[in-house]
Amino acid sequence: xxxxxxxxxxxxxxxxxxxxxxxxxxxxxxxxxxxxxxxxxxxxxxxxxxxxxxxxxxxxxxxxxxxxxxxxxxxxxxxxxxxxxxxxxxxxxxxxxxxxxxxxxxxxxxxxxxxxxxxxxxxxxxxxxxxxxxxxxxxxxxxxxxxxxxxxxxxxxxxxxxxxxxxxxxxxxxxxxxxxxxxxxxxxxxxxxxxxxxxxxxxxxxxxxxxxxxxxxxxxxxxxxxxxxxxxxxxxxxxxxxxxxxxxxxxxxxxxxxxxxxxxxxxxxxxxxxxxxxxxxxxxxxxxxxxxxxxxxxxxxxxxxxxxxxxxxxxxxxxxxxxxxxxxxxxxxxxxxxxxxxxxxxxxxxxxxxxxxxxxxxxxxxxxxxxxxxxxxxxxxxxxxxxxxxxxxxxxxxxxxxxxxxxxxxxxxxxxxxxx
Amino acid sequence: xxxxxxxxxxxxxxxxxxxxxxxxxxxxxxxxxxxxxxxxxxxxxxxxxxxxxxxxxxxxxxxxxxxxxxxxxxxxxxxxxxxxxxxxxxxxxxxxxxxxxxxxxxxxxxxxxxxxxxxxxxxxxxxxxxxxxxxxxxxxxxxxxxxxxxxxxxxxxxxxxxxxxxxxxxxxxxxxxxxxxxxxxxxxx
Lengths: 420, 189
Fold this sequence. Notes:
The structure holds two protein chains of two kinds.
Chain A: H1 3-6, E1 27-28, E2 36-41, E3 53-59, E4 62-69, H2 77-83, H3 86-89, H4 101-116, H5 122-151, H6 155-175, E5 184-185, E6 188-189, H7 197-220, H8 223-229, H9 237-242, H10 248-251, H11 259-262, H12 283-307, H13 332-343, E7 351-359, E8 362-370, E9 378-382, H14 384-388, H15 392-396, H16 401-411, H17 415-419
Antiparallel strand pairs in A: 1-4, 2-3, 3-4, 5-6, 7-8, 8-9
Helix pairs in contact in A: 4-5, 5-6, 5-12, 5-16, 6-7, 7-12, 12-16
Chain B: H1 3-13, E1 18-23, E2 28-32, H2 37-47, E3 52-60, E4 99-106, E5 116-122, E6 126-128, H3 137-148, E7 151-153
Parallel strand pairs in B: 2-5, 6-7
Antiparallel strand pairs in B: 1-2, 3-4, 4-5
């Protein structure tokens, strides 16, 4: 059979925005047909960013039906949180979205802090802001690198990992570990910034924009890259909002919505930065949004370094905050507090809260219901990857299967977070 | 807008829909009668600009506010130590129904986000689906059906999403056993 004969499925012209399919937004049933073939795509395919399974129905090379299946790395985070005291939940949170670990910690810690009404010192807020932005750069670098790998461009991945390593070096310098740090804690951060951090971070702020310039040349100046990404998976603003897209996926469609601006948390209201938006909402705009956001993150890091207020990094609230280590040797009171906090944990009044942060992937929300006990009654995370991967079907149908790879990649889903 | 004002306008638009309202720590919160949910959601989306559905969360209140939560694991339920040794826990009034389905809405566009929390209390875990109002609710509702066992009436594709398709039980329910449960294997579908 020749190529022209079996290409019966219509291919959507470039730039035509995806429509929300009716009635199921996340699953598109193939039409009746004889020449259709159903392919199991994943869960272990290198371009699916982890373990996303797509059941793809093909007419020749054209995707005509798609059903996404997730849950292959479901580890029951939410159930586990219910078995742990509030303190012991902190190391758990970053392991959901392992690329945006700090944002996940911030959402959980922030939610509990609101519930126990603890005042976080200003310096701690600034340090958190700094690391949230470092983490954003980390996540976007991995996105940029892997989106190249999917197209077969390996080299950019190594360049991106080089810069990512410098981010992790900074994390290691302050927290002692490179990822999953348990650095933000209820009431502040675990420790103050060490000596030498300022100079190292300053060097980072100087170097990274130059590197991003080079990457932009590699991506935006590369005709293969442009042709593969332009006009693929286009969504307009209204559809993006209706489908719940957030973060760079939403901003690429031209909606200047950023929780750092819309509902300022931490020290973002004191920061000067721009919200990067796209125009058409295609895969290329999503890619460029993320890449250009790194410049803004560097700007914020620089402002944090320059304007960092002095003062304590932990709230003075011994009923919720671990006492300083050195006091345990000398103070009976501190020892008792430490013991009680670590064994039983603190109790949180019955209440509920929905706390959101702008994770690199979008609105990461933590809905927490407490019952007066030392453990959360119910915790539910609004994972931006979970939400955005729903849109795979409507973006990929009636396009070539090669574009499906680009669509999945450009949504930047992290399966650890989607499955939880 | 405070919860009281919001309750008044929603009640005016859809009479008999608001059962309770409260100003929570973070946003106004309305308790909606299940049979009016679609009407209220459509009203909030079209007239109040709540175009963005953040999340759908199911909460199981079985044993809420009691010493023993009633699930397998520890006979003392959720407490490691006995009550009263650390702080003074208040006795919590459990809600009228076992399940609550919580919707977080927001406005994206000009002006503030104006978040609102809607809550539907249901004894048997059955609410209408809001996929027709916000298409993003598709996976949110499938997740809650899968993990919490909430039935969303009118959902076009209510299947398990996260657990294997032949899984027995709904893990996030409070009466789901923890530890000691038989290992379930699955035929890959």
